[in-house]
Amino acid sequence: MTLRNKEILILTSCSAKKRKSTKRMKAIDLYNGDLFNLAKKFVKRNNFAFRIISAKYGLISPDEEIEYYNKKIENNEDIQKLQELVNPKLNKLLNNYDKILLIMGEDYKKILDPLKNDKFIYFFDKRGLGGYLSLMTHLLKLEEKTLYKLIFENKIITIETLKNLSNN
User: Into how many domains does the chain fold?
Assistant: First the structure.
């Protein structure tokens, strides 16, 4: 089996920045943060599967219609509640994917702690949101073969990982 035939899921968090609306809309259209938009572009460019962890709704598909809300993870109790919403649904999907790329902040990653396994690939940048945006911008420029090599040979993807890749 070639790497291109491997199934990859992009799992990202919702964004604080949303389009305001009194009507329900697809999650993919509601969320409008910079990192979310880059993740959406990354998914579309590479034809990857896509799911979102919403601070209000839990694990949702991009086409799921939801209402505007203003909720964020504030404490460990919120993380625990989201674990109860997200992890049973995600656990049912795990066997469908060879790799799951996590494009999200640290609080959202904590939601997934009970499910951690070798399929999970963590994006990490100590610079915070600006670093994640830079990392995603670099990933969008990679050729398909290089991207798949990166995904299947690393557990954590950082800007340093990308620099090392380009030096090889």
Answer: 1
Domain range for 80 is 3-167
* CATH code, 60: 3.40.50.10630
pTM summary value: 0.91
Residue 89: phi, psi to the nearest 5? Answer: -65, -45
Query: What tokens were used for 94?
Result: 């795990």
Summarised one tens digit per residue, pLDDT across range 46-92 is 999 999 999 999 999 999 999 999 999 999 999 999 999 999 999 99
